[in-house]
Amino acid sequence: MRIRIVYDLQTPITKAVMDWKKCFTAGQQSLTLEQLEWRLSQADSIGENKEEYLKAISEIKKRNER
Q: Which helix (H) or strand (E) holds 29?
């Protein structure tokens, strides 16, 4: 997982770049904090790993505190 900052009309937005290794559709996605929190809330129903979302959320929050 990588954390990067993108810009939307002069406003910095921090995103986590998530990699899915065993996936045929999207191998990599950039997600905002809000998107990560929503996906975490849906992780059980969509069969995804909550741990990875928690790590990404934690990293974005650390970056935003700086």
A: strand 28-32
